[in-house]
């Protein structure tokens, strides 16, 4: 019995005590701070010493107390405490290790000590006591227990050994010492301002470790010059050669600005990470070490190369990540997935080729499916809506190697991410503009002439030729000549012979593709070695080309793209491309410029040859454009006039897209409707990729109909494309990573086709069908492999006469596309409506906009105008109030204004937000230029300026025109000019036009509604439609966020303010959202349920009816918010709730539409009396009671609007911005808002409620997203004094400011003064009064309240208090100072009054001088306004 008890106790103690001891000891060491600093190291050693003493005490109890149960209990504590020493002793040992073998040292030491402890706890007692499983009295339990001292003794010895090693260890790891010395040498040779050096106060030596690849480097940070954090990130990327988008401290906290990095460097111990500079004898320190990442989700990896040890890094975190991976995967709904095997997953479903298998998989499981390949997850996407979401991420995050084989051109502009991509794109952009490509058409044309000669010479007896081989030759010659100045002379080589460069390039490409498909089976590495040899050969040939360009000995063009790349310098860091980057850029040109163009031109010629009708219509168009000249080299304008040719090229791209699948790496969860795409691979152990199935989308029956596999160029007519999803056709990708060389390829192809078809008849050879490469649906087999693309080629004697007539019609932008004859424009009439002085402003980078502006000047001069042409930034925006007529031409670059219009657009936007900005006498017209391929940012800047001028009160002369460089750009400008000068009085208006002046016309009809809106939909259809509205909102970037707190802040209001209400609202942010104090929360308003149901009842609509809305408007005319809901099944109640503003007052145009459908003559006459200029007084009287659309419909019962007509005439809802009233330092997962609930009573006694504020006051969840407000930011230096001026809910952003500075104080950061001027009516609406007074008592701020209606207190407004403190404010904003002033409030009241007072204060009584100083302070962001209304 005793023997069994002893055995059971040994088993229990062996299983429980060491495990609990290790975990408990590790947590204790973590709590003490691990070994991250000298202080935490001392705390850890104290804990270890205490554990050792307790362990010895428990051992003595176990050994010398003869009560069995007390001894057993002592034994258990003894073993537990002994095991608890293991993490600490291991940590001390690891802290002394200064090599890259830390991972193995950690694992080895833990295994060794655990084994010894287990041996001492289980084996040794039994062997010493001689217990053989019998009940013999020879078993001496005391002896057995005493033998257990072996385990703790080993632990103590290890700890002592570690302590001795700590005393002898160096202050820095070897690799960091070497890098620090290199940095010291660099800093010694680099001149810096003043007397700064590497050990001085200006230059900081930063060690940077790449978190993903464990590569390290050193960055020199000049604290006086390197203030832009983007520059710092670029330098961090350069120092270890990988993309860097985020920096982290050793404790895992993110570094978000340069100031934090500098403060870390200043706060480091001076003896931390130092080394000796042999050249000067000085001791140089590495000020701080940080961890960089390319933007993926940050994770500390087990055994990563850091100086600090923490127990949780080694055991707890990997276990936690493993468990949480399963839990997170269970929380979300995944896309459909075929049955996966336990180990290989869906590998069986992907063989022999995933790209080919995508078609049957998507057909079976839907447009979004999930595949697992070992530990990697692949999401195959053939849904344009999901593609739109994925393409919003700028980084592709593609692997740099696959199964040990390096990815081709991984540093090229097509694959690279981060700063490397931005630099390459910037360097290439100027050489790939429309004007630059137009200049290359002679090069393309000359190559086409050479091709014509070879075809005429090589054509066979049957007139057949393998067009694929000759197209490969000409496209290779073009890209080599234009791309890197190398004359390949491929056309001179015999048939079947390739240049060695082309041959090696093809072999490397094939090896790369095979590695991605079958690399997992290359067990012996033969394929990798073969690839490495071929790649080395290719690199050698590319190096020779680069050297030839470098020394000016190239055989091709002297102004090639390679020349531009070699001359380029990064605008952030000033660096140039290194040799490996140049090689990868050349490889990118070969892949994109050669392979893409080859396939596109080959298939286009094949389809033209396959369909005589297509050829006849194309010939007719070419004859229209070129006349009888069959040999002329086309210009850019010629090609843009060839509309049908453009349709042919696009249809070819659709059917045989050279890029079949585009890849993206996932770094964060992505919500796609009901499904969630999860990063981290399978259980967090791999990678997650999205395969955008471009060819699957292009051949989808849903989007292209039952004839999706037929070649029908007419499907690309403008009226058809207007109904498409923006990402339905993306042969060159989409979003920010749209291929910048697409215009180059398309222009080259159009040039070659137009010259080829004018010269030859083309027909297919029926007995030689095209054979496709089994690995690629878009690539034909070569003739050497038994394939080829054979065409019969017969030279034309003259134009065909049988072809149908072709008269391409024009339809551009918002203006009618009538024929243009500017010669008809006469002189300006003596009664010119806008005068004879004309100011023309332009903003652009590459000359296109300037050229268009100069053309307008020429026409205007001929018409008798006195013109003045200037760049936008040469004119102050506020000076436009002195101008009567201005024309503005603006380009857009990646969503931003050009460099010569930045200040103008910014100042104009600021003016438009101020109530006192009035351009009543200004008349304007805006021409916005851009490229419609960039769907999300097309003509964005011009549209913004147009809206800003309207907000300032200026009047449009003609509607905004968006000239598209991807269309007939010049024709659009001419049409706009014609309409403009007609409005300026250069032609006579017709009598009909004069008669229509002053009349009000109803909005045009452009919406149709499919479905029956009067009856409820089936339950399953209604459920799906209900989910579609959330999908629409997600497409717009909004998430459904729960409201946690919704409390009234105003109480005990007097009768006169009974409707005054402010709510404190706390809203949870969606995962992945981040904000900075000062940012806005953009909230999407919704009509109330009462209003929606009332509208449904009045119009005979069923709330749960399912409808589909279609629009006949062109893509450019649609409201982008409303366009998201097109072609989707939606519930009527969702449409009325989330799309149209039913609470707004109907305008005269809407009333005109109601009059059209009023069956009662009395109602119709009442409405018509309010229309036009004559009815304006009656209309103004009517709207004083603020009637809504529902009120109007109830007022006139005979008005019978349809749902479609209501959607046309009612204004669309627009989001509202609310300043965030919290700090992410305190609360990063939820935000606080101060919402002033709008309630007011009109003269008729009706109580009205604000749309969005009333919704927020009652909401349990809202559609919202964070909207960055980069202008509303705290100073980087927390010691900078700030002044905050606000009233009512304008306090919101400053609550966030104060909360952040209060948290900074808690963390030991000194902060400057904060003066808050706050205006309210009385104590009942003095928001957050107790909190503000508490902060004032703590010395954080001064709180100065101005009461306008408090009994017993003199009336005072905020601007009065400012005037009283004029000297203090003038001191804060004095010249040479650093203080900031922020103002947040209503533009019509507080902002206007405070602006006037500020101008008077700054100008010391001279308001005009003060206003100038105020504008200057705003330009340098020392005075910041955030106003509304």
Could you describe the 3D structure shown?
The chain is α/β, with parallel strands linked by helices. 44% of the residues lie in helices and 15% in strands. Strands 21, 22, 23, 24, 25 and 26 form a 6-stranded parallel β-sheet that branches. A 6-stranded antiparallel β-sheet has the order 33-30-37-28-29-34. Helix 17 runs antiparallel to helix 18 (467-484), helix 18 (467-484) packs antiparallel against helix 22 and helix 23 (612-626) packs antiparallel against helix 25. The chain is globular and about 105 Å long. The model is unreliable at 96-112, 118-139, 162-200, 275-280, 296-326, 800-830 and 988-998 (pLDDT under 50).
Secondary-structure-derived class: alpha/beta
Shape: globular
- Total strands: the figure is 42
Report low-confidence residues grouped into runs of 5 or more. Answer: 96-112, 118-139, 162-200, 275-280, 296-326, 800-830, 988-998
Main sheet, how many strands, which sense, barrel?
A: 6 strands, parallel
**What gap, in angstroms, lies between the N and C termini?**
88 Å
| Mean pLDDT over the full residue set | 76
Level of helix content? Answer: 40-55%
- How many helices? The count is 50
Computed over alpha carbons, the radius of gyration is: 37 Å
Fraction of residues in β-strands: 5-15%
